[in-house]
Amino acid sequence: MEAIFLCLIFLVLRVSGLSEGDALIALKSSLVDPKDVLQSWDTSSGNPCIWFHVTCNGNGNVIRVDLGNASLSGHLDSGVGQLTKLEYLGLYSNNISGKIPEELGNLENLMSLDLYFNNLSGTIPGTLGNLQKLRFLRLNNNILMGTIPISLTTVSSLQILDLSNNKLTGDIPVNGSFSLFTPIRFIECDFHFHDDGVG
Q1: Which of 26, 57, 65, 177 is the most buried (most CB within 10 A)?
Q2: Which residues does UniProt assign to the signal peptide (predicted)?
Q3: What's the confidence (pLDDT) of residue 174?
């Protein structure tokens, strides 16, 4: 009976690892990697925890993906939203384009999201308001458009926010967590401060 129980535990961990590995492979497939920084991301190894630029916790879950300043282009695959134990996602200072996937809102353990200095376009997903552990959100120096999602003001853990140098428009909320931030975090955007009375 004990042997069966141990086998079941191993099977669950194995399936979890494969799911995270598949999510990372999908991300790799969506990116152009001229310097082969993702060369070690290979499903034949069966364990994403040994891949470069990936960090796992003691349970074998991926908690950190750091691909900043890696000369990457392409787009962000929505499968990254399957990395539900992820605490840090860094893809800053690359040439990544396309939209920020709404599925990033599934990363309920995420504490830091760094996508600054890319060519990301479209709107800021309102689903990022689901990230109630998020402390650092840096989306500056992209070409993001539209308004700031009011859902972001509910992220009480937010300490660092930078949305500057985008093409955002509309009102800047000053309630909730946004009351902590100065206008410098929103420079080079076509909007103004407005208290919507929420909070």
Answers
A1: 65
A2: 1-17
A3: 79
